[in-house]
Amino acid sequence: MNDPTVTRQTFDEVMVPLFSPAAFVPDRGAGSRIWDTQGREYIDFAGGIAVTALGHAHPELLKVLHEQGSKLWHIGNGYTNEPVLRLAKRLEDLTFADRAFFANSGAEANEAALKLARRVAFERHGADKVEIVSFAQSFHGRTFFTVSVGGQPKYSEGFGPVPAGIVHLPYNDLDAARKTIGTKTCAVIVEPIQGEGGVIPADPAFLRGLRELCDQHGALLIFDEVQTGVGRTGYFYAYQDTDVTPDILTTAKALGNGFPIGAMLTTNELAAHFKVGVHGTTYGGNPLGAAIAEKVVELISDPDLLEGVRLRGDAIKAKLAQLNKRFGIFSEVRGKGLLIGAELTDAYKGRAKDFLTACATHGAMLLIAGPDVLRFAPSLVMPLDDLNEGFERIGKAIEEVVGATAEAPSR
């Protein structure tokens, strides 16, 4: 039974005002549907920001949660545990990696990756090789180091001097990379698809060029797959749909289907530069999170499931094309698998949040990627009936916003 004294207004009274959550309060979920505290139903195209890749209350994950929860939740890294070792082996079998470090989030995974890159450069080349190259509109987390490396200054402004040795270049601009990456560069960090920056895929030639430049100048190539990883693009990791292999890969979000866990994956040779005590974590790699993540990885790495991601992605793009033919509101639809962005035309620039709010009113949850892009990142196993019904609701929401815009008096 819901507590009538706790409402959306309670957030404004008790929480630090860092977020502006929706007017409704989600209460429970099953598969790709959510019910709020008032009993209203929503079809979920947001996936907890590309996190609940197997939907809500997945029975196999609930089974693992209960089994491991009755055995051991936490032990600390003065010890090890079987679930985390099984998870590491499974991820390494699926990727280029030989070694794994587990944390609690994508930001912490990226923090570890950036620290490792600088440590490798220091031990191999000396104190001057510290430059980290990142890209405009990138997003790598909210720790001070990762938010400084990210290419959105609004997130790092107002907190004092940012760490030195960070350079931001235009995304997909290989000429700019060639002019910048050099002997002082220790690492290049890139998202195969910029998620928060607008769902912008990397040009394959751009990624190949970055790999060549890193090899030429003794720098490490880091792929931030926090959002694109664990099946989101229709491949277990997005790099596997390119002919580029990074030196370090970071992963989180879908890895625990909502249970907080992140990982940094790398090679034996590079991992050797992180010796005992050089980096650490209290909760990272705890047995409960690792057991859940192991089951997530087992289920999502199934080739049939990954094929289903690609088919669902095609279905969503087809639905968006139908809506665009009807309303003419999208200038471009882009992305891979089930990470899709629909950019609004000039007539609706800055109004992505209006569409998001209207969709919620009509019983559909989705995301934005900046003020101009609607973002879709639903469960990778979303039933097609839910997908179809969800787009009927989205169509009604778009009709409402477009109609209200047409009726608004001109200024």
UniProtKB/TrEMBL annotation:
InterPro entries: Ac/SucOrn_transaminase_bac (IPR017652), AcOrn/SuccOrn_fam (IPR004636), Aminotrans_3 (IPR005814), Aminotrans_3_PPA_site (IPR049704), Class-III_PLP-dep_AT (IPR050103), PyrdxlP-dep_Trfase (IPR015424), PyrdxlP-dep_Trfase_major (IPR015421), PyrdxlP-dep_Trfase_small (IPR015422). It is an enzyme of class 2 (transferase). It is found in: Cytoplasm. One of its GO terms (cellular component) is cytoplasm. The keyword Metal-binding does not apply. GO terms for molecular function: diaminobutyrate-2-oxoglutarate transaminase activity; identical protein binding; N2-acetyl-L-ornithine:2-oxoglutarate 5-aminotransferase activity; pyridoxal phosphate binding. It catalyses: N(2)-acetyl-L-ornithine + 2-oxoglutarate = N-acetyl-L-glutamate 5-semialdehyde + L-glutamate. GO terms for biological process: L-arginine biosynthetic process. Its cofactor is pyridoxal 5'-phosphate. N(2)-acetyl-L-ornithine binds at residues 142, 281. Pathway: Amino-acid biosynthesis; L-arginine biosynthesis; N(2)-acetyl-L-ornithine from L-glutamate: step 4/4; Amine and polyamine biosynthesis; ectoine biosynthesis; L-ectoine from L-aspartate 4-semialdehyde: step 1/3. It comes from the Bacteria. The modification N6-(pyridoxal phosphate)lysine is found at residue 253. Pyridoxal 5'-phosphate binds at residues 106-107, 139, 224-227, 282. Its EC number is 2.6.1.11. Keywords: Amino-acid biosynthesis, Aminotransferase, Arginine biosynthesis, Cytoplasm, Pyridoxal phosphate, Transferase. Transmembrane segments: none annotated. May also have succinyldiaminopimelate aminotransferase activity, thus carrying out the corresponding step in lysine biosynthesis. Homodimer. PANTHER family: AMINOTRANSFERASE CLASS III, SUCCINYLORNITHINE TRANSAMINASE. Belongs to the class-III pyridoxal-phosphate-dependent aminotransferase family. ArgD subfamily. This is Acetylornithine aminotransferase. It comes from Paraburkholderia megapolitana. The gene is argD.
